[in-house]
Amino acid sequence: MLDKILGEVDLLERHLSVMRVVSTMGPIGIMKLTEELGLSQHRVRYSLRVLEQMQYIKATPSGAVATSRADDMLKHFDESLDELISKLQTLKLQ
């Protein structure tokens, strides 16, 4: 039952890793991203596409750059994660 959620968490982890590198090193191209993250090109490309659709990054001729939306999300990520953890804690069986 939780396998799908665990898969989504793995995907979130990858997207977040890509966004953090873009935020700190951008503009950055796909080749440099794959090198920095140790991921395959197709995985990085997929994450870039998803992040661009969510308006967390944008493509430029020099490579991907983070948007202000990404900066805001990263700034508040720990708070949002704490809220999610708290919600999940309520699901535990006593």
Task: Write structural notes for this entry.
The chain is mainly alpha-helical and 94 residues long. It has helices at 3-25, 30-37, 41-53, 68-75, 77-89; strands at 57-60, 63-66. The protein has a two-stranded antiparallel ribbon with strand order 1-2. A hairpin with a 2-residue loop joins β1 and β2. The longest helix is centred in the first third of the chain and has 23 residues, at 3-25. The two termini are 19 Å apart. The model has no long low-confidence stretch (mean pLDDT 93).
Give a brief rundown of this model.
The protein is mainly α. Helices cover 69% and strands 9% of the residues.
Largest sheet: 2 strands, antiparallel
Strand content: 5-15%
- Helical run tally: 5
Radius of gyration: 15 Å
Order of SSEs:
HHHEEHH
The helix/strand class is mainly alpha
Q: Strand order, biggest sheet?
A: 1-2
Low-pLDDT parts are: none
Arithmetic mean of pLDDT: 93
Helix content: 55-70%
Taking the alpha carbons of the first and last residues, their distance comes to 19 Å
Shape: globular
Total number of β-strand segments?
2
Annotation keywords:
94 residues, mainly alpha, 5 helices, 9% strand
SSE layout:
Elements: H1 3-25, H2 30-37, H3 41-53, E1 57-60, E2 63-66, H4 68-75, H5 77-89
Antiparallel strand pairs: 1-2
Helix pairs in contact: 1-3
